[in-house]
Design a protein that fits this description.
Blueprint: E1 2-7, H1 12-23, E2 27-33, E3 53-58, H2 69-90, E4 94-98, H3 102-115, E5 118-123, H4 127-138, H5 140-159, E6 163-166, H6 171-177, E7 185-187, H7 205-209, E8 216-221, H8 231-239, E9 246-251, H9 255-267, E10 272-275, H10 283-288, E11 292-296, H11 308-315, E12 320-323, H12 329-337, E13 340-343, H13 348-360, H14 362-379, H15 382-393
Parallel strand pairs: 1-2, 1-4, 2-3, 4-5, 5-6, 6-7, 8-9, 8-11, 9-10, 11-12, 12-13
Helix pairs in contact: 1-15, 2-3, 3-5, 4-5, 8-13, 11-14
Length: 398
């Protein structure tokens, strides 16, 4: 088959799927946005890539205006057209597309309908709900007016898909309520690429470069957007400010990083280290430099966003401390795996108490780390996951 996989953000596990499809003999084109301000993994060609695999950026490298809604709307409109044009030139028989708004999906869907290609909507987040939350921060009246329009537009895109692949069963009742036929809904949970995230020594080249070898490191690596409260990380730095052996390391950029820069300067938080995005090829070293990996998600995200950093962290054989809504799939998965401790996002005192406990208890850290990696090895095998996607791409049941 000729298969187009589109992942707006350029995440590692979607690329692992595209490479797997190409290894099975399918001509696979993987597209991603050149302008999304987030870490992207595995987007460079590798010596061992199958001949039928290609990966390309789409659109200009101008950063996406995530929080300037009118400008973002214009950028996404232009991106959707460029995406559909690239699809036209590739002429796929099936398209798998996700991590983007319905505005981006619609031109690609229209192309597929005209050409008779299957369109699979890979539902990572309910963008209408996210858009309503962003608008509500500015004006509840505006959010109330926009909500029905956003939800209707998204529902139409979902209904027009040949299949919707949801990353959590929590989406199923919401999809059915929006008119998606039950037989068109498949649930395939996200994963992380095991082979690319093998555990490394706690002391490695990256930790040495950052002067972390002799420190106890609490590390957060990833986006800090509207669904994340950077104050949880600042609170950790305050809690350990009198312990010179502890470093709270944050690898991020954007609004949340700016907030932490201000807190560090205003309060003299010497133990808070702030770093820019690191090359994807060094991610195992970055995460391996941690004694404790951190994950946060705001209560309003609920079931509508599943932080992939939890899945990535499970692969690295490091314990995880999370502040995530208990109803979120990532929180449930973390507890099922036994890979870490989790508190509710508003429970700052509990978050700090869990951090202090893990700081003292090395055997507990080792137990959580081993359990998390064991879960990842059982669950994140692309040889088990890939055939389910392929079945849907071919029009069969997963």
């Amino acid at each position: 088959m000729r298969i187009l996989v589109h992942d707006y953000s350029g995440h590692p596990f979607q690329l692992e799927l595209s490479r797997w499809l190409a290894e099975r003999g399918h001509q696979t084109l993987h597209l991603y946005s050149a302008g999304v301000p987030t870490p992207q993994g595995g987007v460079l060609h590798r010596a061992g890539d199958a001949p039928g695999f290609a990966v390309e950026p789409v659109g200009p490298a101008t950063p996406l205006a995530k929080y300037d809604l009118p400008r973002r709307f214009r950028q996404e409109h232009a991106y959707g057209r460029a995406l559909a044009e690239r699809a036209r030139r590739f002429a796929p028989e099936a398209v798998l597309s996700g991590n983007c708004s319905p505005q981006i999906q619609r031109p690609l869907q229209r192309y597929c309908r005209r050409r008779g290609a299957r369109f699979l909507y890979w539902l990572q987040d309910l963008y209408a709900e996210a858009g309503v939350r962003v608008l509500a921060r500015r004006s509840h009246r505006l959010a109330g007016l926009a909500a029905p329009l956003l939800r209707r537009f998204e529902a139409e895109s979902l209904r027009r898909s040949d299949a919707v692949i949801a990353i959590t069963a929590d989406f199923r009742p919401l999809l059915e309520a929006r008119g998606v036929r039950p037989e068109r809904i498949a649930v395939i949970e996200n994963w992380a690429p095991l082979r690319e995230l093998a555990p490394v020594d706690r002391r490695n080249a990256w930790s040495g470069e950052q002067g972390l070898d002799e420190r106890f490191v609490l590390l957060y690596a990833g986006t800090l957007g509207v669904k994340h409260n950077p104050e949880m990380l600042a609170a950790l730095a305050r809690a350990f400010r009198d312990d010179p052996a502890v470093r709270v390391v944050v690898v991020s950029e954007g609004l949340g990083r700016d907030h932490l820069e201000q807190a560090k300067a205003a309060e003299g938080l010497a133990g808070l280290e702030l770093l820019d995005w690191q090359p994807y090829e060094r991610l195992p070293e970055v995460l391996g430099s941690a004694d404790l990996l951190l994950a946060i998600l705001e209560p309003e995200a609920g079931v509508f966003a599943v932080p992939s950093k939890v899945l990535t962290s499970l692969c690295t054989a490091r314990p995880i401390l999370a502040a995530i809504p208990p109803e979120n799939l990532a929180a449930r998965l973390l507890l099922e795996a036994g890979g870490g401790l989790c508190v509710a996002p508003g429970n700052t005192a509990g978050f700090l108490a869990a951090a202090r406990r893990l700081r003292r208890d090395a055997p507990l850290r080792a137990e959580l780390a081993a359990a998390g990696r064991a879960y990842a090895e059982r669950t994140f095998d692309i040889e088990r996951i890939g055939p389910r996607f392929l079945a849907l791409l071919e029009g069969r049941s997963a």
